[in-house]
Amino acid sequence: MQKTVFEVFCEYLNIIYETGGSPYILVKWFKELPIHYSYLSNVSYGKCILLKLKTNSIANLELKDNKIVFDTRFSGVSHKLIIPIEQIISLRDVSGNLPELFFDHTPLKEVVADSEKEINKPIRQKPKLTIVK
């Protein structure tokens, strides 16, 4: 049975914690995210923020219902963040012990539809050169 993105996220986060790593998540900005615009960065995925999930930086971490919930502080102001798994682009261990894990949230039916378009595409032939005298 194939694991969900949320299950893979939880397992990988647990591995990072067990190996003493420093987990960070790259989160795509969404309007319910109570973070001042100055904390956001422009990357190829759009407006994003890199959030530290190290236990000394957050409190009350909960992983449930395809959401990551925790309390954190920005400039001394406490915030409760509720981040849907669909908004998480990657999970990384910045201590360098483990590779970065990227999440593709493309629904499987879209991937299949795209691959069918590729299959039905006419095959491009190489151009032919004819010498005319």
How is this fold's topology laid out?
Layout lengths: L4 H14 L4 E6 L12 E3 L2 E7 L6 E6 L2 E8 L2 E8 L3 E6 L7 E2 L5 H13 L13
Antiparallel strand pairs: 1-3, 1-7, 2-3, 4-5, 5-6, 7-8
* Lateral arrangement of strands in the main beta sheet: 2-3-1-7-8
Estimated helix fraction: 10-25%
What is the number of domains? 1
- Mean pLDDT rating: 79
Contiguous uncertain segments of 5+ residues: 110-116
Order of helices and strands: HEEEEEEEEH
In whole angstroms, how far apart are the ends?
65 Å
Shape: extended
SSE class: alpha+beta
What is the CATH topology?
SH3 type barrels
Q: CATH superfamily name? A: SspB-like
Describe the structure.
A hairpin with a 2-residue loop joins strand 2 (41-43) and strand 3. Helix content is 20%, strand content 35%. The protein has one domain (5-120): SH3 type barrels (Roll), CATH 2.30.30. It has a five-stranded antiparallel beta sheet with strand order 2-3-1-7-8. Mean pLDDT is 79; it is low at 110-116. The chain has 133 residues and is α+β, with helices and mostly antiparallel strands. The chain contains two helices and eight strands. The longest helix is centred in the first third of the chain and has 14 residues, at 5-18.
